[in-house]
């Protein structure tokens, strides 16, 4: 067999998988002194697994402790293995400290599971308050981050509506749910193909921040609060901004394509996109979320059917805005797994402890967003060319 270190490591792992524990240990032992901490750490991890399978728990513990000190990219696995052995030995307080070290070094996708183990150990050792706090951390981004962007969008929409109340002398307060009017500021941002064709392209986005009356505003902001906050915690604030704006643009672009004479406003297109994204994510990626999110998402399919029936049965509603946002959200949810919560597919692991399904590369995620943006840009170009061509 070649002495090339990576091949030696691969051969040692192969022998470990086939159950030839002594041969695996002999082949891996020379790698434990390698200057590359990645190789030496992985060798110690594999030796620890071999000794544990051979019922040599002290030897396994020593190997895992060496792996935790190696400083390589997988040293967190050494700390986690040490913690697991300490639990088996009944040393729970020491196990908590080892799990904390693993948590500090582990990749973000692994920290939720480690935090959950810490929480159970804290509960077992009588630290109830610390356990509750740790369980919240174990829920990942959904449990630990405030939905700042969602609250900011709600604040912007309410503030713009208040400004239009003042500018219109209170006239905008007379609008009902099925119709109404905007004030002077809103008039400058309603989506309409002719204004977009004249160069006011910003209406594609800004129309989503103005509403036709207080009931229209209140209903949209409530739905956004329920579902937008979940999406933000699933994807993080940066991606959520991109999702929201693309869904808003999807509703505007379909509107100027299908009904260029229509004047429309409201966050409904973006909200339909958020709901459509959650539906696609729940069916395709099978997210592991907290109890509150599960209760909100449990009836997402039925709620989506209700929204669609509402769209087509009630007059004076921009069905193009709703369907355009829904289509964009569903596309994004289908192709982009959440980054802030675990998924069932991402929980499968190899014998080394590494996830079989890694995180989606950043470049590929950016390509999905860019592809949707290009598609919407093309739709806008077609709509404008029809009017000025």
Explain what you see.
- The chain is built from 20 helices and two strands.
- The termini are far apart.
- Helix 19 (319-335) packs antiparallel against helix 20.
- It folds into two domains: 5-144, Serine Threonine Protein Phosphatase 5, Tetratricopeptide repeat, CATH 1.25.40; 148-388, Rhomboid-like (Rhomboid-like fold), CATH 1.20.1540.10.
- The protein has a two-stranded antiparallel ribbon.
- The longest helix has 27 residues, at 362-388.
- The protein is 70% helix and 1% strand.
- With 389 residues, it is mostly helical.
- The chain is elongated, with a radius of gyration of 27 Å.
Please summarize what this structure is.
With 389 residues, the protein is mainly alpha-helical.
The average pLDDT is 87
Total number of β-strand segments? 2
CATH superfamily of the largest domain: Rhomboid-like
Contiguous low-pLDDT stretches (5 residues minimum) are none
